[in-house]
Design brief:
The structure is a homodimer. Chain A has three helices and five strands, in the order E-E-H-E-E-H-H-E. The first copy, chain A, has about 120 residues and is an alpha+beta fold. The first copy, chain A, has a four-stranded antiparallel beta sheet. In chain A, helix 1 runs antiparallel to helix 3. The longest helix of chain A has 14 residues. At the A-B interface, strand 1, strand 2, strand 3, strand 4 and helix 2 of A face strand 1, strand 2, strand 3, strand 4 and helix 2 of B. Strand 1 of chain A pairs parallel with strand 3 of chain B.
């Protein structure tokens, strides 16, 4: 389980929250038309709907940050979608979940590249 | 700030923790000798030391998960290092922090590839 989260309170101080016992699933999407506002709106809603899968324990959905341009920084993607699970089993539930299958079916036409990183501590 | 974290308690239920107001800095390292146990031990200690930078609010350090092999999954890296900050300013503090500079100086010989993804919600 996400043991690192259990003791969190409003008084948690910087640097204290090291997450342990989690599977992090981080997906980067490159939309075919990243400037298309209709596509963006559809996709942002779809990602929010995807977060309803009940095995997701923590999430962060974002876009490239305006950090310094460096050779090692990959900022050509359109959306970052990061979710954490308690276990590989919970990630497998997610992969086969109707909400996830519907997400792919309804939105895969919008992207032309996806890169996934799964990591465990 | 990491607003999504504030209301967290032991009773937080699945799917509730959507992090908002964060800059996620996710780094993937490919070690030159990923099977070298001395290198791995040094690097794992170095990443733990790096987490002492006080602007880091949340972290997850990992290795590739044994998820299903799919064309979109990138699992050739050696280590995943994810940290979250409250702001771009806090990430800039981190970049120039003596602990971070020492991390690079002491360990950059160990890796031959680094990819960084910075994202904001």
């Amino acid at each position: 389980m996400l043991a690192g989260l259990s003791p969190l309170t409003k008084n948690t101080t910087a640097g204290e929250v090291s997450i342990n016992g989690a599977l992090m699933h981080h997906v980067f999407f490159w939309l075919k038309e990243p400037e298309n506002k209709v596509h963006r709106k559809q996709f942002e809603k779809a990602m929010n709907d995807l977060l309803k899968v009940e095995t997701i324990k923590l999430s962060h959905v974002g876009i490239p940050a305006a950090t310094e341009e460096r050779g090692v920084v990959e900022n050509s993607y359109t959306y970052s979608f990061m979710v954490m699970f308690d276990s590989l089993g919970d990630q497998n539930v997610y992969q086969k979940h109707p909400i996830h299958l519907k997400f792919i079916e309804d939105n895969s036409d919008l992207w032309n590249k996806v890169v996934v990183y799964d990591s465990v501590d």
